[in-house]
Amino acid sequence: MGGRCSRFGLCWWPSNLKSNLPHSSDLDREYEKLSVPSFREYSLDELRAATSGFSVDHIVSEHGEKAPNVVYKGMLEDGRWIAVKRFNKSAWPDTRQFMDEARLVGELRSERLANLIGCCCEGHERLLVAEFMPHETLSKHLFHWDAQPMKWAMRLRVAFYLAQALDYCSSKGRALYHDLNAYRVLFDQDGNPRLSCFGLMKNSRDGKSYSTNLAFTPPEYLRTGRVTPESVVYSFGTLLLDLLSGKHIPPSHALDLIRGKNFLMLMDSCLEGHFSNNDGTELVRLASRCLQYEPRERPNARSLVIALAPLQKETEVPSHVLMGISHETSSSASTSVLTPLGEACSRTDLTAIHEILENLGYKDDEGVANELSFQMWTSQIQETLNGKKRGDAAFRAKDFSTAIDSYTEFIDGGTMISPTVFARRCLCYLMNNMPQEALGDAMQAQVISPDWPAAFYLQAAALFKLGMDNDARETLKDGSLLDAKRKRN
After folding, report:
1. What's the CA gap between 32 and 111, in Å, rounded?
2. Which residue windows are transmembrane per the record (predicted)?
3. Do 201 and 101 contact (CB within 8 A), yes or no?
């Protein structure tokens, strides 16, 4: 696991810094102003509905279905986005222990955490519910970035915020964090890094606290199998190496470079010319101290906060700017929330759209004027209704071509109008790869019911299929505004 000490680690520590930084209690008071629901128990049915039956399309774990405990994105009935962690069947056999642990973690509230807001314990199911973080993990932004590498100022901010999160947890008696790594650091709607609350709970049956490569595991854990606060600091040191290098470098290799005074070889080549050697040296020294072989020689969480505070750069620049997340995306995520139908249309998830439309039935047709004379009723209505019934049966059976023919017969009959029929035929056209026809039907549904959000959402799905993404996003926004208006009324 590398050397037992480091010359950097033994000779350096910032003794001249005063502890005039915001303490965890200050962060705690600040976060009380934010809208985070109290911890509660959810039913399995609630979470199944929120995740479309734990659909694979809702999986947000970066290892997908192969992850031992899968995380899903979901939406509650109140429009709140959530992350749902579903443990495998062998985890947490003791119901009381699971519930007690979840409640204790659920008492924590900090703007540096992706907070736990609930749990579910029914039969063999064990699920945790947390705030949803829309901008993925540190692993994604450091190791698998698309548009731009993470800026130096943002890397320093990640380290600082993460240290604050650990300091807060320690102050609340939750100093033990299991398997701290780049997958556990998430980014919220404003691009701010947060520590996942899931690592504050331990799988009670297998007793494993580290699932990563043993090369990154604290040496004392290999000896005793126990996690201590000092073990968490060691893992924090490996995260500092990640931030410095943009790669997942084993601590033993990094310490060899540091002892050989070749620390610049650790630095991410993408950062060349964008950081000062002094800053790099300070962060390397802190990492080396965290990675000391002897746990007692490592700093505590509060010391990490004190050491990282003076290194912060561009503190006036919002995180979403440093991260390259557009301000519109950041602000709209917090102000306009899509319903499950809107979300399904934003992903053009046609299977989910079909399920939602089927469950909605025709309740949104209420109030649509269908004025028919008695003569028209007696001579034509039965034939028209039969066409609609055949269309509904085909729609339910996912025979979308037959549904198109039958709904067309209903529409062409001209005796009744139904925005839902146009919405259903719109989806049928999408299923048959006919997005232009689908767009026409969604627009016709809007003509009949100008304030119906579903008509806008379906237009967005058709526009996405046509490659008109900007128009689609604007239409999604229109639909979400109509939904918000409905809720206010």
Report:
1. 9
2. none
3. yes
CA 214 – CA 261 distance, rounded (Å): 26
Q: For residue 322, what are the CA distances in angstroms to 141, 150, 249, 272, 318?
A: 12, 8, 24, 17, 7
Give the pLDDT mean for 97-104. Answer: 94
Angle at CA of residue 338, ends 125 and 472, nearest 5°: 130
Distances (CA, A) of 38 to 103, 112, 198, 487: 10, 17, 17, 22
Which residue from 195, 144, 146, 152 is spatially nearest to 174, judged by alpha carbons?
195
Task: Say which amino acid occupies 120.
Answer: C
Tokens coding 407: 């709904």
CB 473 within 8 A of CB 459: no
The DSSP letter of residue 149 is P
Burial of residue 104, with CB atoms counted within 10 A of its CB: 0-12 exposed, 13-18 middle, 19 or more buried: middle
Tell me the three state secondary structure of residue 185: strand
179 is catalytic: yes
Contact in structure between 314 and 271 (CB atoms under 8 Å): no
Rounded CA separation 182/236 (Å): 10
User: What dihedral do alpha carbons 12, 17, 18, 20 form, nearest 10°?
Assistant: -110
Active-site residue (options: 94, 100, 146, 179): 179
Instruction: Say yes or no to pLDDT of 30 above 60.
Output: no
Nearest to 365 by CA among 306, 247, 448: 448
Query: pLDDT (tens digit, 9 = 90+) per residue, 219-267?
Result: 998 888 888 999 999 999 999 999 999 998 888 888 888 876 777 788 8
**For range 86-115, the mean pLDDT:** 91
Residue 211 banded pLDDT, cuts 50, 70, 90: low
Q: First vs last Cα of the chain: how many Å apart?
A: 62
H or E segment and range at residue 122: strand 116-122
Q: Can you read off the two tokens belonging to residue 373? A: 């004379």
Q: Looking at the DSSP assignment, which residues form a beta bridge with residue 114?
A: 196
Please, which residues have CB within 8 angstroms of residue 215's CB and are 6 or more apart in sequence? Answer: 1, 250, 251, 252
Residue pair 163/195 in contact (Cβ under 8 Å)? The answer is no
**Length of the chain, in residues:** 489
Express each pLDDT in 267-304 by its tens digit: 888 888 788 888 888 999 999 999 999 999 999 999 99
Is pLDDT at 201 greater than 50 in this prediction? Answer: yes
Q: What is the largest CA-CA distance in the chain?
A: 98
Report the SS3 class of residue 365. helix
Which residues have a Cβ under 8 Å from the Cβ of 274 and sit 6 or more positions away? 151, 152
Q: Round the CA-based radius of gyration of the chain to a whole number and report it.
A: 27
